[in-house]
Design goal:
Elements: H1 2-27, H2 33-37, H3 42-54, H4 69-74, H5 76-83, H6 102-113
Helix pairs in contact: 3-6, 5-6
The protein binds heme C.
Organism: Polluticaenibacter yanchengensis
InterPro entries: Cyt_c-like_dom_sf
Protein name: Cytochrome c
Length: 118
């Protein structure tokens, strides 16, 4: 009987959370529900963004090889700082490119917040 009660409570909590978050989504456009809903890992989330957005500058040659786990981790604070800058600001990344989406920026922040999952 106790088990049954728990089973009934869980969906109710789920519905409340859903209502709460959908309300927020219409209020602020900067939330990134996709990035928050799951654990961000380097191989599946961070690396593909680096390969799409930061190549070829950071994948070949002398610039930091941000597609390598250790190097991306080592540069995470500078990376977050730079991708959050305005396109015209000094040090903005991707250099000469377009500002990344809020969701993609959130991937880097979440990766750090989650403790750098591989
Ligand atoms: C068009 C080439 C180009 C692209 C694309 C680019 N960068 Fe850079 N990046 C540079 C250059 C050149 C420097 C060194 C000059 C400086 O510090 O601004 C640099 C420096 C950096 C640094 C400082 C550490 C280092 O390697 O010297 C970080 C961190 C960085 N970039 C992150 C990124 C991220 C993250 C992306 C993708 C979202 C990106 N960059 C895309 C050219 C690029």
């Amino acid at each position: 009987m106790k088990k049954l009660r728990i089973l009934l409570i869980v969906p109710v909590i789920g519905i409340f959370q859903f209502c709460g978050s959908s309300k927020k989504a219409t209020e602020t456009k900067t939330t990134a529900p996709v990035a928050k809903a799951k654990t961000i890992s380097f191989e599946t989330d961070v690396k593909p963004i680096v390969m799409n957005t930061c190549a070829p500058c950071h994948t070949v040659g002398k610039k930091s090889h941000l597609f390598e786990y250790d190097i991306a981790k080592e540069h995470i604070d500078e990376t977050i700082e730079r991708i959050k800058k305005g396109e015209a600001d000094r040090g903005f990344m991707p250099k000469n490119g377009k500002k990344m989406s809020d969701a993609d920026i959130a991937v880097f922040e979440q990766w750090k917040a989650n403790g750098f999952a591989k």
